[in-house]
């Protein structure tokens, strides 16, 4: 059934586990993530990024409605989250499209501008029943940008600044920069577990890890133990899907029916989603 992100995150926090949030681009991603969560027997967040909306030529509703239909018929709870929103126009389309939550992304702006934009977004979100996540510090690696050097000022999230940012913006969760980076195709990120612990102690809202595809299993488990409550995964699904499609087409150069290669891609994503969902549920 359809659930809300706020409920799933609150329950994960109470159980000292994390809820996985997978980025979905196509219907096959949606079907795979839900099948993987069903196989693991645990709730999941389906998230649609602003970039995925751009891929669908600016349309949010077709994928949102498909995701809603799959969620409603799922054997586990499934929430819909709008991810990495920079456009106020897109933010305002979230409630009618069936999203219970948004991540508002102004982390590329200087601190004061990030705070002002996030506070305005949070006011609007709360007035319209949305749970809202924002980012402080820079995870990096998004839209082809290079990963930031950990020593770049503002790259890592500062706990004192984070406490002020959450109090003054009123957000419900905070995405933190603790050593992960977006769009990694190898699982080689090393997280700053001391910083995660200090952030968890400083804040009374859940912490969100972005760029989790590049984080090895043991690092992810430790991060969840340290207080990460929502784990965002995108690239790992795409790595699995693309490898399966490439293999199938190499084996069968005459194949023309998309159900053959999209089906192989969907199976590969299902297994990835199941594995990560199992890992996060077991992590303490
Ligand atoms: O918001 C989305 C996530 O941060 C996904 O990052 O594609 O590197 O796993 P990833
Ligand atoms: Zn992200």
Automatic annotation (TrEMBL):
Keywords, alphabetical: Metal-binding, Zinc
InterPro entries in UniProt: Aldolase_TIM (IPR013785), Class_II_FBP_aldolase (IPR050246), FBA_II (IPR000771)
UniProt-listed Pfam families: F_bP_aldolase
List of residues binding Zn(2+) 1: 84, 182, 210
Entry-linked Gene3D superfamilies: Aldolase class I (3.20.20.70)
Active site: 83
Binding residue positions for Zn(2+) 2: 105, 135
Coiled-coil regions listed: none
Cofactor note: Binds 2 Zn(2+) ions per subunit. One is catalytic and the other provides a structural contribution.
Membrane-spanning ranges: none
Protein name (Swiss-Prot/TrEMBL): Class II fructose-bisphosphate aldolase
Organism: Streptomyces doudnae
